[in-house]
């Protein structure tokens, strides 16, 4: 528990003698807390970091949006999807406006939002987000990321019993991964479909 308090103090200026917090490392600190299984400490950390960082850098700062993305993803993993969705929507709106619709952080946020919305059954919005992600894959190809987007959409369609649509997207994901250098990923997707 001592390391959790030290990390939180460092990033939130509660530590004596800390003049310049390492806010750009804060998302890494949050991820470390998560990796250590300190879920509640990570939640508190992200909340405190966001409060402080918004005051320092403003609502539109990239570090704020990245912290929102990581915080919301943690909430989803903890089963608190209802809390995560408004955070993801706010981050996505800001990132789209500030960095553009095809920035990597914007796309990661859209993907996390699509996953979260899919789990609570908000299918209309999900049906808008996944095609956007796939258009991004065409305009700025990154095989592994693109395969993740296509696989996510395929899983969404499969859960809604659209087997043909899921198969088409899974094949697309397989082709994209085939273009990358990670054959173990292809085997994983191939085994699913």
Itemize the secondary structure elements and their pairings.
Blueprint: H1 2-12, H2 26-35, H3 39-57, H4 62-77, H5 81-98, H6 104-119, H7 123-139, H8 143-159, H9 163-178, H10 183-192
Helix pairs in contact: 1-3, 2-3, 2-4, 3-4, 4-5, 4-6, 5-6, 6-7, 7-8, 8-9, 9-10
Q: Can you describe what's shown?
A:
With 193 residues, this protein is an all-alpha fold. The chain is 78% helix and 0% strand. It has ten helices and no strands. The chain has helices at 2-12, 26-35, 39-57, 62-77, 81-98, 104-119, 123-139, 143-159, 163-178, 183-192. The radius of gyration is 18 Å and the shape is globular. Mean pLDDT is 76; it is low at 12-22 and 181-193.
Q: What is the CA-based Rg, rounded?
A: 18 Å
Helix content: over 70%
Instruction: Name the shape in a single word.
Output: globular
- Report the total helices: 10
Mean of all residue-level pLDDT scores: 76
Descriptors for this entry?
single chain; disordered C terminus; globular; mainly alpha; 193 residues
Structure described in brief:
Helices cover 78% and strands 0% of the residues. It is mainly α.
